[in-house]
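Friendly challenge for the regulars: who can give me the structure tokens for this chain first? No prize, just bragging rights.
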Amino acid sequence: MSLPDPPSEIPVTAPAAAGIPPAYLTVSDGAAAPPDTAPLNLRRLVWRLVLGALGVLVLVGFGSVFAASQLAEREAVNDAAGIADVLAEAVVQPALDEALAQGDPAAVAAFDEIARTRILSANVVRVKLWSTDGRVVYADEPALIGQTFPLDPEQLEVLRSPQVRAEVSELDRSENVFERSSGKLLEVYRPVWTPGGTQMLFEIYTAYEPVSERAAQLLRGMAGVMLSSLLLLFLLTVPILWRVFDRLRAAQQQREALLQRAVDASAEERRRIAATLHDGPVQDLVGSSLVVAGAGARAEAMGDASLADDLRRAAAAVRSSIGGLRSLLVDLYPATLSSAGLAAALTDLASQAGSRGLAVELDLAEGVAESLDADEQRLVHRVTQECLRNAAKHAPSCRVVVALREDGEAVVLEVGDDGDGFDAADVLANPADGHFGLRVLRDLAAAAGARLELAAAPGQGTRWRLTMKERTA
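First reply, four minutes later:
Bragging rights claimed.
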């Protein structure tokens, strides 16, 4: 779920230096990396498979349409070439004579009768007979007879190297003015000869409709094979994917169980270490502190002031070590967080910080701490702990305010102190190796998908603001 807009600034009662308070700078924008153990969803997987199959079907369908049209056109061109070759050999060439080649009207009329009865048909829509100089010797369109048009390079090549040539006609030449109304046509031409050896060019135009019909036939045949193949592939793939899904789900559950076991083992180990320190070294140090304090009192009673002072200093050092160990115990295993809740755990942190010279004030809105889940409570506790630790290290004897409250649908934690502060922009732009606390806080927020902001300036203290994602009811 996306983060809301940054909440309005929560006022912190810690005093700030005079002047404009420093603006908040983003340390972590809450864009946590998505976990690689997202729950598997069988329905989503099946839908992806179906959509993928439909995508393949669409792509293959477009490819099939193109391939079918190209194949049908090629077949139609070849068929037209074959038809023209047969007509030239069986009908046209036997009817040629020198009179026709010279344009004799009677010869033209006789050839016209042959062309209309034996060549023109529903498929052949135009017949032309050319001389080698581009004169139309015969055409079933009388207006073309006797006109001269320049022969294009392909026609001249056919006359030089006798062959049959067929292609889709462009119909953009001046001699095609009467064919343009017929739509798309196939053009076929080949040389023919009169009995006296005079070369002429025989040309026919055939309808393009058979190409579309043939393409539709090919597409229907390919569609049946394609659809049946995809259906068979889908039926074979689903059981395999189902088995893979089951294995992935089992592996995911195993990883989650191992992760939970590791977390539980880590928590148990932290509890064990804390218990060992509490029942062992801490108790021994407490006993040693009492013994040393008693020895100091006896030395003072015996009048040995120097020895008494040394023993009192030793007892104080032991008590200081005891305090440090107890703080470490709380860091290792904050028992109050799991047993008494977040509010009590924050109170313990404030008490510990007080022993380090900080004056900590808690401002916890009623019911907010209790409304957080376990992960959110741990995040608030860890961030507060780190902020207080940083304050004790870099701003000893300062005053710190810890505020936790709601802001719309978000929960905001703000920790501010009135210490010396620092240049936040410079630190964020050039993080030095010594700013370990900054890296810890940034990693904590990023791992939880929360927004972390920092406002600090020399002489104006330091403020941290953690904005947690919207919570669902």
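The domain at 62-207 is CATH 3.30.450.20 (Beta-Lactamase). The chain has a mean pLDDT of 79. Your move, everyone else.
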